[in-house]
C-alpha cells in the first residue's frame, strides 16, 4: 500500500513539474583519494496567466562519500535576502560525515508584462557577458572557471525591469539584494544592449557591496570567426580602482564538427609575484568584488570535436602567464536518448608547488542527466 502511494505521489510530481534527475560521481586525488556520489533532482514549474508568469525551481540532493558533499549552512555570500540552510542533514558537520542531504530553492519569481516592459520580482537568474572563460561584467552569480555543472545559473533575489528598444536592443535596470537586504550587501545596475554596425554592444553601470563598476562588451563576426572584447573598471569604497579585460576569438570548422576558441584575460588586482598570492587575496577585489584569479595575465583555450552525431569530445586549458601553471580539463558528452546524456571528464593542475594551479587536485567526474 505504501509503495502504491509512493508511485501515485511520484506520478503527480512529474506531471506537475518538469526537471532533471542527475546521478553523479566525483573522484578527487591530491594527497589522498576522496570520492562522493549524489542523486540530484531539480523540479521546475513555469506557468503563464495572461501577462503574469511564475517560475519555481527546487533542488534536493542526497549525497554519500568520504566525506559526503557538505553544502553551506547560512551562505551569506550569495545575493539572497534569506535562504533555508543548504544542508538539510546533518545539522552539524565535523568533516567526516559519509551521508548528507542538500537542497536549494533556486527559482521563485513573478514576472509581469505591461506592453513591452517586463518586470521580474523574486529569485531569478541574472547574467551578462560574452567572454568564454572569465567575464569581467558578470558580477552577480558568475560560474568560476572549471565549474562542471553549468546547466543552470544560481538564482538571486532581485527586481529587474527590461524594455526592448529595437532588434536585439534593450535597456534594463534592477536591484539585487544581499543578506537581510542590507544596503552594504546589496546592489543595483543600469544596462543597455544595442546592435549597431553589425556589432552587439553592451554597456553596464552598477554598484554592489560598496563597489562601483562600469563595464562594456563588444561582440561581432570577423570573417568566418566571432570576436569579442569585454572589460570592467571597479572602484571599491576604500581601496584603489582596478580593472579586468577579456578578449578572444572563436571559430567552427568542417561543417561545425570542430570548434575552438582562444581568449586572453587581464586581471589588474592580481600580482606578478607568486610569493604575494596569499597577502594579495585579502584585498577588496577578492573579498567582495568577485575576483578569484591570483595573477595578472592569463590565456584560455578550448576545443570541441563532434566525433559522431551522439558523441562530442572537448578539452580546455587556463594558463597563468606569470607563474606558468595551468588548469587543464578533458571530457566528453554522449547522447543516450532524446532526454538523457552522459557526461564524463577529468581535470587537474600543473606547475610547481607554490604556483596558482600547481596544487590543484586531479578530479574525475561522471554525470548522467535525465530530463523529463
Detailed description of the structure:
By secondary structure, the protein is mainly β. It has one domain: Beta Barrel (Porin). Helix content is 6%, strand content 56%. It has an 18-stranded antiparallel beta barrel.
Write the layout of secondary structure elements.
Layout (H helix, E strand, L loop, with lengths): L1 H15 L1 E12 L3 E17 L2 E14 L21 E3 L9 E16 L2 E8 L31 E11 L2 E8 L10 E10 L2 E10 L2 E12 L2 E12 L5 E12 L4 E10 L9 H4 L3 H4 L9 E12 L2 E10 L5 E12 L2 E11 L11 E10 L1
Antiparallel strand pairs: 1-2, 1-19, 2-3, 3-5, 4-5, 5-6, 6-7, 7-8, 8-9, 9-10, 10-11, 11-12, 12-13, 13-14, 14-15, 15-16, 16-17, 17-18, 18-19
Name its key features:
18-stranded antiparallel barrel, 56% strand, disordered N terminus, 19 strands, 372 residues
CA-based gyration radius: 22 Å
Q: What order do the helices and strands follow? A: HEEEEEEEEEEEEEEHHEEEEE
Oligomerization: single chain
CATH hierarchy, class: Mainly Beta
* Spatial separation of the terminal alpha carbons: 26 Å
Quickly give the CATH architecture. Answer: Beta Barrel
Mean pLDDT equals: 93
- The total number of structural domains is 1
Q: Any idea what the shape is?
A: globular
Portion in strands: over 45%
CATH topology: Porin
Outline the low-pLDDT stretches: 1-11
Structural class: mainly beta
Helix content: under 10%
CATH homologous superfamily classification: Porin
**Count of β-strands:** 19
Given the structure, what is the number of helices?
3
Amino acid at each position: 500500500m505504501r509503495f502504491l502511494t509512493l508511485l501515485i505521489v511520484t506520478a503527480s510530481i512529474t506531471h506537475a513539474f518538469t526537471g532533471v534527475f542527475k546521478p553523479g560521481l566525483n573522484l578527487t586525488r591530491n594527497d589522498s583519494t576522496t570520492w562522493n556520489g549524489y542523486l540530484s533532482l531539480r523540479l521546475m514549474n513555469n506557468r503563464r496567466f495572461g501577462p503574469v508568469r511564475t517560475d519555481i525551481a527546487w533542488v534536493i540532493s542526497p549525497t554519500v562519500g568520504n566525506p559526503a558533499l557538505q553544502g553551506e549552512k547560512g551562505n551569506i555570500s550569495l545575493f539572497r535576502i534569506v535562504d533555508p540552510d543548504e544542508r538539510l542533514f546533518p545539522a552539524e558537520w565535523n568533516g567526516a560525515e559519509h551521508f548528507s542531504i542538500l537542497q536549494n530553492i533556486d527559482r521563485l519569481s513573478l514576472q509581469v508584462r505591461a506592453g513591452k516592459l517586463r518586470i521580474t520580482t523574486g529569485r531569478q537568474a541574472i547574467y551578462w557577458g560574452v567572454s568564454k572563460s572569465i567575464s569581467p561584467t558578470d558580477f552577480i552569480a558568475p560560474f568560476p572557471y572549471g565549474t562542471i555543472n553549468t546547466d543552470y545559473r544560481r538564482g538571486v533575489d532581485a527586481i529587474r525591469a527590461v524594455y526592448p528598444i529595437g532588434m536585439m536592443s534593450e535597456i534594463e535596470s534592477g536591484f539585487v539584494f544581499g543578506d537581510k537586504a542590507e544596503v552594504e550587501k546589496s546592489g543595483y545596475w543600469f544596462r543597455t544592449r544595442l546592435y549597431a554596425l553589425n556589432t552587439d554592444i553592451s554597456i553596464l553601470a552598477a554598484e554592489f557591496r560598496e563597489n562601483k563598476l562600469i563595464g562594456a562588451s563588444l561582440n561581432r563576426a570577423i570573417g568566418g570567426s566571432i570576436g569579442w572584447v569585454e572589460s570592467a573598471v571597479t572602484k571599491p569604497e576604500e581601496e584603489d580602482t582596478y580593472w579586468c579585460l577579456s578578449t578572444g576569438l572563436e571559430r567552427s570548422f568542417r561543417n561545425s564538427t570542430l570548434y575552438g576558441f582562444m581568449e586572453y584575460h587581464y586581471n589588474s588586482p592580481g600580482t606578478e609575484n607568486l610569493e604575494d598570492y596569499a597577502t594579495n587575496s585579502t584585498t577588496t577585489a577578492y573579498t567582495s568584488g568577485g575576483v578569484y584569479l591570483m595573477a595578472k595575465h592569463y590565456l584560455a583555450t578550448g576545443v570541441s570535436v563532434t566525433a559522431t552525431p551522439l558523441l562530442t569530445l572537448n578539452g580546455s586549458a587556463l594558463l597563468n602567464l606569470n607563474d606558468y601553471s595551468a588548469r587543464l580539463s578533458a571530457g566528453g558528452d554522449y547522447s543516450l536518448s532524446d532526454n538523457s546524456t552522459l557526461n564524463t571528464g577529468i581535470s587537474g593542475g600543473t606547475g610547481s608547488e607554490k604556483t596558482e594551479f600547481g596544487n590543484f587536485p586531479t578530479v574525475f567526474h561522471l554525470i548522467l542527466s535525465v530530463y523529463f
